[in-house]
Request: fold
Amino acid sequence: MQTDEIKYYIKNILRNILKIIKDIRKQPNFWKYILLAVVCTFIFLLITFPYSTLTRNQLQAIADKIGKSSYIGDISFSLTDSTKIDEFNITLNNGSEINLQFANIDIGLFSALFNKSVKGNTFIQNIKYSQDKTTVNTVLNSDFDLDFESYSQYPSKGNINLVLQNTIANGISIQGFEIPPVRFSSINADLNINKNKVQIDDIIFTGPDLKGRISGSIELAKFFKQSRLNLNIIIDSSSAILENYKILLQSWIDDSKKIQLNINGTVSNPKVNTNKAGKTALKRNDDFESDDKFQEKRPPVMKTDNIDAYEEKMLRQRRDSKVMPPDDFRPSRAEEPIN
Reply:
């Protein structure tokens, strides 16, 4: 087939297509049909889009950033309801594990896909953190509004409100001291994020065992365990868990019956500094003289049977130094010459 013939066939095909389009445009309600076709196509894509796969990929990216392995269970996505995840497990680099069960996530879908802005709320029926003998179980309810430059990075700005309920911590030890199980009725936290800094406005924890609050900041590093801490913890000294340690903690309790702790360093290597009250505890008279730190500086008390020897020793020292006391000062029991 020659080139001219090929050109002829192509022109005929294009001419027929244009003729068909012109005939269609002459039909009534043509533009309505076009609009309906576009809408149906959009709805089809919206319904059939693999949201579950997208959610799984985003969770996997977060897990890879903060841990060394992870498991993501079944994900159920709904346009009219919250996304449900039956299980999400992360093993961190230090060997500890975080396990989330029965999570409901409700976020603004279009802003998350097109604006990299995540706004919504999350309810997790069971969160478990475990490391060696330490375990923490809690229920989480959270509202958040976060902006991202990239979903593989920390949020660039935003705020998070956390409410933890029925929290139980077991197997905690501080500097070799085993802490009995601690129960919290609720833990409320307000966090603000700006670039790589998390500002903790207030974390208030209450419960039958321990009460207090936390404030400060966390400067996020590329690797989370290297993030720097600057936290101030205030604990109510009347908390039940401290009842057996009040004698040891007496010097840490200030006039308002609070214990203050400052935590610096990094997430992987925190340093705890105590803000001691610096006041002296009251003592009984019989305890006062036995404590070297608080003992009153008094001249030694001499026994009666040692008075003669003491007077003789003093006179000999004065005679050797050729300085003798006046007669009225000289003790009456030492009037005889001393050889």
Q: What stands out?
A: Residues 75 and 85 are 5 Å apart (CA to CA). Helices lie at 3-25, 30-48, 51-66, 109-114, 246-249, 285-288, 307-320.
